Fold this sequence. Notes:
The structure holds two protein chains of two kinds. Chain A is an alpha/beta fold. Chain A has 15 helices and 19 strands.
Amino acid sequence: MSKSQKVAEFNLWADSFHEGEWACTNIAREIESQGGSFVVQYDQGFIPAFRFKINNLEIRVHVYGNYGSWSPKPKSLENLLSWGKPDLVLINDSNDEILIAVEETAATPTGNQALQRCERQFGSAIEGFPFWYLISEFGLHSDGGVRRDSVWPSLMGLEIMTSLEIPSIVLHYSDLENPEDYERGKGMKSLFRIMMGVLINSTNGVEPMRGLEEELQSQIEEMTKFIDFTATNSLYFLPESESTKKEDLTKKLCTTGDLRSLHRKDRENYLNWPLACELTALQQGEQRSRDLKKQDPFARELEKSIDKGQSYGIIRGSGSKPQKEAQMKTWISQQNSIQMTWEKEVDSKYEEAFRLHLKDFPKSPTGYHVITAPRILYLFDDFSKVINCLSRSFPVLNYKSLLNIDSPSLVYISNSVKPGRIFGDPYTGQIAAYATSFGALSKGRKVIVYFPHQSVAQAVNNFDNASNKGLRIMKELTDYLVFGGGITLDMKTGEIL
Amino acid sequence: MKPKLVSISEEIVRWSFEISVNRSDDWFIAFTNPTAGPWKRITAPDSNGKKGEIHRFEIDETRPDLILVNDKTQLVLIIEAKTTFNDLQKPAQLAKTCQLFESLTLRLRNMSNNNFWGLRSKYEYSLGLLWSSGDESKSQISKTCQDYLKNITAPTKDIICIQGYLENDLLKSKAYKAISGEILKLPN
């Protein structure tokens, strides 16, 4: 080793060895394209140990696949994993600092696939770590057609970057002619150029993103272009964003040096969603109530609020997949049993406020529909109007203490019947994506989540359970959870109203 | 801070075995099934060495953990991997693995017209079980493998066992036929 040579060690933690080695092989490709070289050997017969050489640098990266098989893990990694396991986490071995977390998926971006991992995107942001999400822009659906990725991870990323000033980048690979092909599109190469740059900078002892502003700017521009192209496929409209915000955003991210903002006081939104009273005539023209799929008093009031001009729906359409009778019987029995146990042991004043009956769910040839409202998101101008909807729906309960809160609000509905499901995929990812995208980080809107078919007991019993990832996300991003029968949990205090 | 290995999972024992396979001149990996990533396709080289796709698994389609091919001995190994032998003994697992082996064997045997599979459709197809060594006895292994054979109607006489084990801090694997006991020169 010559005197001027710099050597640094890194650990690339990965969900699987395949992904870790795949990442290093692609970093090697970038290193070689810059005139560098690499060798790989397998420590203990299986741990990939890469040595990259470029200019006067020797960059050593060990891959540790399968998080659960290793100990000890850096504290920062343990904290990050508690929000869900990213596919790749690059750590500086000298100080155990997380440099980058990466989520990548080969899953076809149809249905809820893309949103399922948004909780990791959020977890990384809230822990203060830069995050890159590599996803196929075009995917093959089981019906043979080609589908385009959801707009939500990108929207969420821009909101995170604007309000927390931490990179939360969504990169796309593939193209229309070659769906799900990693080698197509700009995303994969761009990700590994960033990873190579961060490794080189860290070996040189300078800020990880130094000199990478152009790459980062280009990634953010691709995100905004993607949103502009695709948003109205799933949304009624997209608010105009100020063109100067993109440049400001990159500047902010790149001047923070270690990629983490020290100034989180003035949280802003990337997009400012209008109030219902500010909608244009054209936008208002698309807003009218629709029939419920399954009868539900609160869902009915939410739909009526659209006709009253108090709220509007932003997402077009919602599908309904019938659930099998045997499963429904089991879930309904479990929900009622959980609720009755809670009533007896904890709070008898809610006796019989919530009971599920199979006959209330519309039957189809393949099972039972569980969808209540015809949409899953409502944007309200005024929180008190949501409370009025609740009061009319559940007149025996008292919501008066909430009437003095003055804030625009978001109501999200999950109709799942299976016990515990609301704390896992895809609901926690959806809540993370929607709440963040509509201003929860900047506290621009109150967030209320309605679970018409779930017993409140599940949340009460798990409220202080730190390993319940779903509730941790809800504590961060929501204000009130409304359960079956209108029983409402204050997420800041853990108290039932 | 370099961590230490505290448990050998299915992922690790399979990965270690795959490294050995990749060092072999005779065997190649046609499919591996990690949790995610660009690997959800069965691929193989044609007679000119050009690699192509044989089959792409649907998102909810049952997949094996590994498919290995040896063009010299004309053998295809369809492998189920589990962390422990106990996991492979469970009746539901046994039924699922045998069903998958049969359906996949049938699919691959019917691909004689595929440019990238072609003659491989005529090869011998065997089921392999891969796990991390524990306290399972030889007789337990033999009995379980006989149970697997009873559930397979396709012509196959033996089950290939691949056991991962730690020796002097090195992760290794050994391969043998469960019924005959023949030690196999699989990549190691």
